[in-house]
Design a protein that fits this description.
heterodimer, A: mainly alpha, 2 domains, B: 2 domains, two-stranded antiparallel sheet, 18 helices
């Protein structure tokens, strides 16, 4: 009985400390020091919310780079993968269909890279491998009437290298790249202007890595 | 495998090994009641907790009283969490106006979070209010981890003390592990996570207009503060449904590395704490080494399987259910870390792993979550196998077995065997029933052996207090919510109570001086024997079940069969 009473008292006290004070303190510091990240790395254009840098959006038009397939149709409520097993007929069928669609849209580009054939884990994977981006380059260049070199330059500027030189994989954020493409349009009409996307980029050394 | 895979593997193991002694030493000081540098800023909180709880922190408890206090605390936690979920609709911090959850989901989730399992039958971003996540789930993330540490420390005291009645004070162990160990590290980690992009706010969900003109609703919440303790306490319950595959929960490879380290760091450091407190540092490192050897070999096997060719989809390494920023290597490493520790957080969907990688994830859990294992639970689970090994070695040479000066007798061995067998029986019986009952079969998503694996994985995960899933299984049904909830409670408390009994019984004994006939526990011979016992018990118990699931699936895959 004594322990039951102590349990109740300690539970409610620790709930206040760990369940209220602690998250509020973290939120306060986070909102002061890292407001952008704490609020979801949101992208606003002319006061309008256009998405989050970290959450994939669906792109189907030929003038955009396409994201990895999503089990939740890019709707974050809720996130998730297909959970198809490695010998599931549905997986085999989906991979075959995606492959056919990709080959039809990218004639002459060879075999589609892995990450475009398989659905991501979260359904919201914002990035894809450099080879998946390069695979789509000629289609995007044709649809936008861009030269191959201009597009290649933009792509290599958007490569996110391994963190600290070793961690993770080399990837490209699809939404960031597509936004940069949209910004380049006026640039093409007046070629003296610098590309607007220059500010967010890493040193320009085109990588020939093709992922795995 | 490429060079970067190998580098990251070495980096992970190196960092873990480097961090083990300082944290282990720190915890030994905390639990032996010595003053540390954190007592200056946080000592008042410890004293205030005792005051609020009305407990006598000087009191030394016998094992029965210790167990009683622990069970009372968990019972209250269970009831409070069930009620909180069911009435969340009328409570504040619920910007999406989520209604109260069903009784069976509330029971399952409460059992799961109180039992340090964090199996989730629900999707966080569409079910739980911010208040439920913070006050209910994140709170249990802390205290269920602290309970695990407390039990491990009580067992160590039982081994160390001579002719003693008590094994410590539950309230003190609970409070100290929360305030001096879990809270400070979780706090720092949470801020690092936010800096990398993990969300931390109380904003309602926002609607975005995508570049192609579609509507997309973005979920938020106080995620970073919960995600840090989710890993540090080997809990694993995701703030969002996709868990640590979600870019708001695990946005970068650096966060990913820190999350894996957070899973292993306390279980690894506790081996050192044990070495210090038992004055047997070499033996502590031996336990660390055995865990590491099992971990490295099973991870390599899993990597080999995942990089092998899958003829069904005609690819050499399948990116289904994996995120581009992590790739194959970090997905597999995370999967073995999270399943060998009883974490259960995932950054890739385990259901879509290659058959043998999924099987290794299950085997990690079936061994009893002792390869580093859960916080506290890993160490006390491993010590069960140490005692079993000593006992078997004693039988072989015909002497009364001794462990660190304590004679191991029938009473302890009965408790050890009970604690080893209870989760095994729970897994196999639960799987067997669910494989024949219509209520069990109607939840399956995959056909063929993968369907069986979904059930086997669910009961393994529950009874081993892991919490990861082959998530195709629709577990949010009354049948699975109740069955898995019970499996979690059996797997948790049918180990903890026998462990405390062993601790009490060992504390009572005299220390017998080592003689020439004493079996030494810090030699390579002992390590080999221990690994042998662990693998034999695991394999004998579970090989038949694994053959029906992942193993036959692997063979079918090689033959190009689909389901």
């Amino acid at each position: 009985m004594k322990h039951l009473l102590s349990s109740i008292r300690i539970t409610f006290f620790l709930m206040l400390v760990l369940g209220v004070a602690y998250p509020i303190l973290v939120t306060f510091i986070a909102q002061v020091v890292f407001p952008k990240q704490a609020n979801g790395s949101l992208i606003y254009e002319d006061g309008r919310l256009r998405g989050s840098e970290l959450i994939a959006q669906n792109f189907e038009k030929p003038e955009y780079f396409w994201p990895r397939p999503s089990a939740v149709s890019f709707n974050p409520l809720p996130s998730g993968g297909t959970n198809l097993g490695p010998i599931a007929q549905d997986l085999q069928k989906a991979v075959k269909e995606r492959g056919e669609k990709l080959r039809a849209a990218h004639p002459g580009a060879g075999e589609p890279p892995q990450d475009l054939l398989f659905a991501s884990s979260s359904g919201l994977d914002p990035q894809e491998s450099v080879s998946a981006i390069r695979y789509q380059a000629s289609r995007v260049a044709a649809a936008r009437n861009l030269s191959g070199e201009t597009l290649e330059k933009l792509i290599s500027e958007h490569i996110e290298h391994r963190q600290l030189g070793v961690l993770g994989e080399e990837v490209v954020n699809v939404l960031a790249l597509n936004r940069a493409l949209d910004k380049m349009k006026p640039v093409l009409q007046s070629p003296t202007q610098e590309p607007a996307a220059q500010d967010q980029i890493q040193p320009n050394h085109p990588s020939d890595s093709s992922g795995k | 495998m490429n060079m970067f895979d190998a580098l990251q593997f070495v980096l992970f193991i190196g960092l873990l090994t480097l961090l083990t002694p300082p944290l282990g030493k720190f915890m030994a000081r905390v639990f032996q009641g010595e003053r540390t540098w954190l007592h200056q800023p946080l000592g008042w909180l410890e004293r205030l907790t005792y005051l609020a709880g009305g407990v006598d922190e000087k009191r030394d408890m016998g094992w029965k009283e210790y167990a009683l206090a622990l069970l009372c605390f968990n019972l209250i936690g269970l009831v409070v969490l069930i009620v909180l979920q069911m009435i969340q609709g009328g409570l504040p911090a619920n910007p999406q106006a989520f209604p109260g959850v069903s009784w069976h989901l509330a029971f399952n989730t409460a059992a799961s979070f109180v039992g340090n399992t964090n199996w989730q039958s629900y999707a966080g971003e569409t079910t739980m209010s911010y208040l439920t996540q913070m006050l209910g789930l994140a709170f249990q993330n802390f205290v269920s981890a602290a309970v695990g540490i407390a039990v491990a420390v009580a067992l160590i005291r039982g081994i160390v003390r001579k002719s003693a009645q008590g094994i410590g004070n539950f309230w003190v162990d609970l409070t100290r592990s929360t305030i001096y160990v879990l809270l400070p590290i979780a706090f720092v980690l949470a801020l690092v996570f936010v800096s990398q992009g993990v969300v931390q706010n109380f904003s309602p969900y926002l609607e975005a207009l995508t570049l192609e003109g579609a509507k997309q609703i973005l979920p938020f919440g106080p995620a970073a503060s919960q995600v840090s303790i989710k890993f540090l306490g080997t809990n694993g319950g995701g703030f969002f449904n996709a868990n640590s595959a979600h870019p708001f929960e695990n946005p970068t490879a650096l966060v990913n590395l820190l999350q894996m380290l957070a899973i292993f760091i306390i279980p690894a450091a506790l081996t050192y704490t044990f070495g210090v407190m038992a004055n047997a540092k070499k033996h502590g490192w031996l336990i660390y080494g055995v865990m590491m050897a099992l971990f490295v070999s099973l991870t390599c096997a899993s990597l080999y399987s995942e990089y092998s060719y899958n003829p069904i989809v005609g690819q050499g390494s399948v990116m289904e259910g994996k995120e581009a920023r992590f790739g194959i290597f970090n997905s597999i490493l995370f999967s073995t870390v999270t399943t060998s520790a009883s974490c259960g957080g995932v950054n890739a969907m385990h259901s879509s792993l290659s058959p043998l990688s999924g099987g290794i994830a299950m085997f990690n859990m079936m061994l009893g979550e002792i390869i580093f294992g859960g916080v506290g639970a890993g160490l006390y689970g491993m010590l069960l196998f140490v005692l079993l090994t000593i006992f078997l070695a004693g039988l072989m040479v015909g002497r009364t077995p001794e462990y660190l000066g304590k004679k191991i007798e029938g009473r302890e061995m009965m408790m050890v065997i009970l604690a080893i067998l209870a989760p095994c029986a729970t897994i196999l019986l639960g799987t067997a029933f669910s494989s024949v009952l219509p209520a069990g079969l109607s939840s399956l998503a995959n056909k063929g052996p993968h369907g069986f694996s979904e059930i086997l994985y669910a009961f393994t995960s529950a009874a081993a207090n892991n919490g990861s899933a082959f998530a195709g299984l629709n577990a949010n049904t009354p049948y699975y919510n109740v069955m898995l909830g019970l499996a979690i409670l059996f797997g948790r408390f049918l180990i903890i109570v026998p462990i405390l009994a062993v601790a009490g019984s060992l504390a009572n004994k005299k220390i017998s001086p080592a003689s020439s006939g004493t079996f030494e526990v810090d030699t390579p011979l002992f390590a080999a024997l221990l690994i042998g016992v662990i693998l034999i018990v695991g394999a004998l118990t579970f090989l038949p079940a694994l053959s029906l699931g992942p193993i036959v699936e692997h063979v079918l895959m090689l033959n190009g069969r689909t389901f």
